[in-house]
Design a protein that fits this description.
413 residues; Growth Hormone, Chain: A; 76% helix; 0% strand; globular
C-alpha cells in the first residue's frame, strides 16, 4: 500500500468519524425533541425553532470556512471546527433553559459549519476524479451511521437514561477525533490533481460567474428545503400521522441512516464508472424517486410497508449529498474547491434554517400530513434544475501556448 493510499484512508476515516459525531448530535435532537419539549414546556412551533437553531450558526460559516481552507489548509480549519462543535455538544446536555439550549445549538452549528467544508476539501484533495465519488461516499457514510445512532439513542435510550447523556458521549468522542487528526494527518502533500500542474490563483469572486456551480447550489437549496423535513420531522410524522409509538417511530426513522450508508457506497461506485453526464443522470433519477417515495408515505399503509418505503428513501435520498460534494469539486479548478463546496453547502443548509420552522408552524395549526406532501413535491421539482448543470470541456491552449478558460464554464459578464 502506497503512502498516498494510506493517507487517503486515514483522512477518510477520521473525517467520517467527525461527521458521524455531528450527525449523532443533530439527530438526537430530532428523535428526542418530545422529551426536550416536555422538559422545557415547548409547543410545536417552539420545537421547530429548536430544531432549526443549529442552522442559524451553521449557515454563517460554511462558505467562509471553504474560502479559508482554500487559502490556508483544510487541516487546521477542520480541527478548529470539530473542537468547537464537540464542546458545544457537551454544553447542550448541560443546558438549563430554552435560551441556553438554543445558544448552545447555535454554537454547535458554527463549529460544524467550520468543520464540514474543510473536511470535504481534505477528502477531495487526497482523491483523483475517477475515485472521488466513491471515497467521498465512504467519508460521508459517517453521517447516516451517526444519524442511525442518534435517532435510535434519542428514541430508545433517552426515555430510560435521559436525553442529555447522548450529548456528553458525542461531544467527548468528537474531541478524541480532533486530537487524532492533529497528531496523525500530515499536510505535506499537494492534492492529487495538482501534483503535475501549477497552482492557479483564481479570485473567489469568479465562483459566482460559474453557471454550473450556481445551478448546483440552487438545486441543493430546493432539494433540502424538502429533505430536511424528512430528516428532522420523520419520527414526529410517524407518531402523529401513522400513530406509532415513540420507540417504534424512532427505530423506523433510524433505518434511513442504515440503508443510506449502503446506498452511498454502492451509488458512489456506480457513478465513478461513468462520465459526468451519466453521474448527473443518476443524481436526477434518485432525486425523482426519492420525492415519489416520500409522497407515497402519505398513503394509508401498514407498518411493514412503511418500513420498506423508509428503507428505499434512505437508500436513494441519503447518498445525494456525497454526490453533490463530488460533482461540485469536479466543476471548478482545485484552487476553488473549498470555496465552491462551502457555497453549495451554504445554500443547502440555508434551507435547513427555514423549512423546519415552516413545517413546525403548519404542523401546529394543521397537521404534518400536508407538510409532508409539499416537501415531496419540492424534492421532485429540484431534479429539474440539474438539467442545466453541465461540466465544461478541458482547457485548451491558444496559439501562444497559454491555456484558455473552459468554454461555457463562466457566465457572460
Amino acid at each position: 500500500m502506497t503512502t498516498e493510499t494510506r493517507k487517503m484512508i486515514l483522512v477518510t476515516v477520521l473525517c467520517g468519524l467527525g461527521y458521524m459525531m455531528y450527525s449523532v448530535d443533530r439527530m438526537t435532537v430530532s428523535s428526542a425533541v418530545g422529551l426536550i419539549s416536555a422538559d422545557f414546556g415547548l409547543g410545536r412551533g417552539e420545537a421547530g425553532i429548536l430544531l432549526s437553531s443549529f442552522f442559524f450558526g451553521f449557515i454563517l460559516f460554511l462558505f467562509v470556512s471553504g474560502i479559508i481552507a482554500d487559502k490556508l489548509s483544510g487541516k487546521p480549519v477542520l480541527i478548529l471546527g470539530l473542537v468547537m462543535f464537540s464542546l458545544a455538544t457537551v454544553f447542550t446536555g448541560l443546558a438549563g433553559s430554552l435560551t441556553s439550549l438554543i445558544f448552545y445549538r447555535v454554537l454547535t452549528g458554527i463549529g460544524e459549519g467550520i468543520f464540514w467544508p474543510a473536511a470535504s476539501l481534505e477528502v477531495a484533495n487526497v482523491t483523483t476524479e475517477k475515485q472521488r465519488t466513491t471515497v467521498m461516499s465512504l467519508y460521508w457514510m459517517g453521517y447516516p451511521i451517526g444519524g442511525f445512532l442518534g435517532t435510535w439513542m434519542g428514541a430508545m435510550l433517552g426515555p430510560v437514561f435521559g436525553w442529555r447523556v447522548v450529548f456528553y458521549v458525542a461531544g467527548a468522542m468528537g474531541l478524541v477525533v480532533a486530537l487524532l487528526y492533529a497528531l496523525l494527518v500530515k499536510n505535506e502533500r499537494k492534492p492529487a490533481d495538482l501534483r503535475q500542474t501549477p497552482t492557479e490563483k483564481i479570485p473567489v469572486s469568479s465562483l459566482f460567474r460559474r453557471w454550473p456551480v450556481m445551478l448546483m447550489a440552487l438545486y441543493y437549496f430546493v432539494l433540502l428545503a424538502g429533505w430536511w423535513i424528512v430528516l428532522l420531522w420523520a419520527p414526529s410524522y410517524l407518531m402523529q400521522v401513522k400513530n406509532l409509538s415513540m420507540g417504534v417511530a424512532g427505530t423506523i426513522a433510524s433505518l434511513l441512516g442504515l440503508t443510506g450508508a449502503l446506498g452511498g457506497f454502492l451509488l458512489g461506485r456506480y457513478c465513478d464508472k461513468g462520465d459526468f453526464a451519466r453521474r448527473r443522470a443518476i443524481l436526477m433519477g434518485i432525486t425523482l424517486v426519492s420525492g415519489a417515495v416520500m409522497a407515497a408515505m402519505t398513503l394509508p399503509l401498514s407498518t411493514p410497508l412503511i418500513i420498506v418505503l423508509v428503507l428505499i428513501l434512505g437508500f436513494l435520498g441519503y447518498p445525494i449529498t456525497p454526490l453533490v460534494l463530488s460533482f461540485t469539486a469536479e466543476l471548478v479548478p482545485p484552487a476553488l474547491r473549498g470555496s465552491a463546496i462551502g457555497l453549495v453547502m451554504n445554500m443547502g443548509m440555508a434551507a435547513g434554517g427555514i423549512s423546519p420552522i415552516v413545517a413546525g408552524y403548519f404542523a401546529q395549526h394543521y397537521t404534518l400530513h400536508p407538510v409532508w406532501l409539499v416537501a415531496a413535491a419540492v424534492i421532485l421539482l429540484s431534479s429539474l434544475i440539474l438539467l442545466g448543470v453541465k461540466k465544461a470541456p478541458a482547457p485548451q491552449a491558444d496559439p501562444a501556448g497559454q491555456p484558455l478558460p473552459p468554454a461555457g464554464q463562466m457566465l457572460k459578464p
